[in-house]
Design brief:
The complex is a heterodimer. Chain A is of the alpha/beta class. Chain A has 17 helices and 13 strands. In chain A, strand 4 and strand 5 form a beta hairpin. Chain B has 2 domains: about 45 residues, no CATH class; about 240 residues, MetI-like (MetI-like fold, Orthogonal Bundle), CATH 1.10.3720. In chain B, helix 7 packs antiparallel against helix 10. Chain B is globular, with a radius of gyration of 24 Å. Classes of the chains: A alpha/beta, B mainly alpha. The interface between A and B is medium-sized, with 34 and 24 residues.
């Protein structure tokens, strides 16, 4: 290689490197500019806001939707790295203890005027150490959803009011050959299976913990024990699909929508809008709701609402506050229900929708909403996810027959104690 | 002195050396920043208590490692991972060798066969697992349908209700995705064996099995070592397939799922870091055993 050629090659290499770097920077600049302009929001897939809704927000939005698990992971990794995952993010009721104790979210008490706060009864679920760290916008609670046509075909006159009546109705449906597996309940090692057990614990008239967070479910006479025994017995009796040990809550809902199940026992209240939509459900004309059965005859249920929070290191806090208030506006809430099936958290909006005949099974939903309790009266503890993970795996193992109900509840109690250490 | 790294001045680099350094700097920075620095940081943090829900990050020494030793859930996850490694590495190696021998034997349509074989490897692991989730589905999955049509089973099976079956099925899905990589590595090794060796062996009366044992396997040993090492490392790091197919179930929970649950679900980061350090040590140790063993047995005298 001659000296001249060498210099030419060196120049070419330098020019190549310089051009590449410059192009890279140029490509990155518009992206950075766009990100600064739009308000970044992180939401779950069931809140994929359509354009007709986002167009009404006064400002550009950069909405990212991620799965429920993935949102949590993104928030955790971002916050540990001291970077906001978005300016406003989803805040699930079950994350409140962890995120609150970590100090990752701004207090939003000053955002809500007293009359608006009074219209949002589930704000207490998002209060940690006296501070409101999430504003509830998605009113999820559990209600029993059933197939009217199945009950009529089986000669069952009215929806069940107690767990015993539920079993009797399911047996009648199965005997009539209307559905092979009338009860739809998830039993996989998933959060949906755990929350269904919590709901049934309330249906059997009890709670998970006492005021000092001591387990109340280990005694065979306790509600939690009976609830798990109920699930395992119904599975063994063939009233629950054997495949339920591999099914999550959303997959169980597909069974109901396809007309293969009679009772979506732990039904999502907002899902009635989906179940009664002929474009999304094969049982649209037959889906109905009933108050959650209870051994004492008085229905109980618990709330699993979704909220919006603002990370402490969010870039655009003012716009994020505007976004939260916009999500609480009656029209936005009504559209959110009409288009996506997300039930409003404001009582006044629920009542208006019901009065206008737009709330599917509105009377039942409003009656059930009036008895919604938080799962933990003391507030969701920081160790909840660890406890809930143990519930899911133990319940799954009991359903598969790998361990007894006694062993399962003992394992859960042990995990609860370990998680609280 | 243009080809020498240093010029006459001891600390002055020549132009070529500077260019070489400049070109290797990005790789060194990427490896340092994205591999070695996080590794050291993880190792360092595993000796502290890093839990966002608790104030401060006190030094705890080896306490996190001791906690892991006494945790039955972690022990189960290690057992599952060991099963994955044994099953997946065996399936990938035997199947990959078969695929490589087939590719090496045919001449017509080899590139098309190669393209088809590589397809599973091109799929993202989650997509791969979702496809197999449909195959295994107890209600409408084709696996039940095929086995019932063949008279092997008389009723649909819920495959993941049995731990051993679940472990095997997850391993199978993982091996199905990773086998093409093993096949390509071994195929490349096979291509480097001179044909004359086989011709000489044939003249000496050696049969196909004898040729495989005495010529093929020893000469592809370096490739086999690489294939075994990568199979082992990927099997130790198995996450997506087990997570998609059976969630957090203890029956199929791998060590890396346990890391995820510990760190990101329970927010016990340092405990998760300690477990990930152990997973890395195990996968390195097993790979080192392969390398040393194959090196000793195959080095040319």
């Amino acid at each position: 290689m001659t000296g001249a050629n060498h210099r030419v090659n060196m120049m070419n290499r330098r020019q190549f490197l310089q051009t590449s770097s410059a192009l890279g920077l140029l490509a990155a600049l518009p992206l950075a500019a766009r990100a600064q302009e739009a308000l970044s929001v992180l939401l779950p897939p069931w809140v994929t806001l359509p354009k007709e809704m986002t167009d009404t927000f006064p400002g550009p939005l950069d909405i990212q939707t991620l799965g429920w698990d993935e949102i949590r992971t993104k928030i955790v990794t971002s916050m540990v790295a001291n970077t906001a995952p978005a300016s406003a993010t989803e805040m699930d009721w079950s994350w409140v203890g962890q995120f609150g104790s970590a100090g990752w979210y701004d207090a939003l008490d000053d955002l809500l005027p007293p009359e608006l706060k009074a219209d949002l009864p589930t704000t207490s679920i998002f209060t940690y150490d006296g501070a409101l760290i999430g504003v509830p916008y998605n009113n999820d609670f559990r209600v029993m959803i059933y197939n009217k046509a199945h009950l009529e075909a089986a000669g069952v006159a009215a929806p069940p009011k107690t767990p015993e009546e539920l079993l009797a109705a399911a047996r009648a449906v199965k005997a009539a050959g209307v559905a092979d597996y009338p009860i739809a309940l998830p039993l996989s090692a998933s959060e949906g299976a755990a929350t269904a057990w919590y709901l049934l614990t309330k249906a059997f008239g009890g709670d998970l913990f006492d005021a000092e967070f001591k387990p109340l479910f280990t005694d065979p006479g306790s509600a939690g024990y009976q609830a798990m025994a109920f699930e395992v017995a119904a599975l063994k009796e063939g009233l629950i699909d054997p495949a339920a040990t591999s099914l999550k809550d959303v997959e169980v809902q597909e069974l109901f929508k396809a007309g293969k199940a009679t009772f979506d026992v732990a039904g999502w209240a907002g899902n009635l809008a989906v179940y009664t939509d002929p474009e999304k459900s094969q049982v649209a004309a037959d889906a109905a709701a009933a108050l959650m059965p209870n051994v004492n005859g008085t229905s109980r249920t618990f709330g699993l609402p979704g909220a919006l929070g603002i990370p402490v290191n969010a870039a655009n806090k003012e716009a994020a506050r505007q976004f939260i208030l916009w999500m609480l506006e009656p029209k936005t809430m009504a559209d959110n229900y009409r288009l996506l099936g997300n039930l409003p958290t404001r009582i006044s909006v629920l009542e208006t929708l019901n009065a206008e005949g737009k709330l599917r099974e509105g009377d039942v939903l409003i009656a059930q909403a009036s008895v919604v309790e938080p799962l933990f009266a003391q507030g969701t503890p920081g160790w909840y996810p660890e406890f809930s993970g143990a519930v899911a795996t133990a319940l799954n193992a009991a359903a598969k027959g790998q361990i007894s109900v006694d062993e399962a509840v003992a394992q859960i109690a042990e995990a609860a104690a370990a998680a609280q250490e | 002195m243009g080809r020498v790294g240093f010029s006459s001045s001891r600390f002055r680099l020549s132009r070529d050396a500077r260019l070489g350094l400049m070109l290797t700097l990005p790789v060194a920075l990427i490896m340092g920043g994205l591999v070695f620095l996080p590794l050291l940081s993880t190792l360092f943090d595993s000796l502290y208590r890093v839990e966002p829900m608790k104030p401060g990050n006190p030094f705890v020494g080896l306490k996190n490692y001791a906690t892991l030793m006494g945790d039955g859930t972690v022990t189960t996850a290690w057992g599952n991972t060991a099963t994955y490694v044994v099953l997946a590495v065996a399936i990938e190696t035997i199947g990959g060798l078969g695929m490589a021998l087939l590719l090496n034997a045919i001449t017509v349509g080899r590139r098309w066969l190669l393209a088809i074989m590589v397809l599973p490897w091109c799929l993202p692991p989650v997509v791969n697992a979702i496809i197999w989730m449909w195959i295994y589905n107890p209600s409408y999955g084709p696996l039940n349908g095929i086995l019932m049509a063949m008279g092997i089973i008389d009723a649909p099976q819920v495959w993941f209700n049995d731990r051993e079956t679940g472990l095997f099925l997850v391993s199978l899905v993982h091996a199905w995705r990773m086998m093409p990589l093993t096949a390509i590595i071994l195929f490349a090794a096979l291509q480097s064996i001179p044909e004359e060796l086989y011709e000489a062996a044939r003249l000496d009366g050696a049969g196909p099995l004898h040729r495989l044992r005495k010529i093929t396997l020893p000469l592809i040993a370096p490739g086999l070592t690489i294939a075994l090492s990568q199979s082992t490392v990927f099997a130790v790091n198995l996450f997506d397939e087990a997570w998609v197919l059976n969630g957090a179930s203890m029956d199929t929970r791998s060590v890396i799922i346990q890391v995820y649950v510990t760190a990101f679900q329970n927010l016990k980061f340092s405990l998760g870091m300690a477990l990930s350090v152990l997973a890395m040590v195990v996968s390195l140790a097993v790979s080192a055993i392969y390398v040393l063993r194959v090196y000793r047995e195959t080095r040319f005298e």
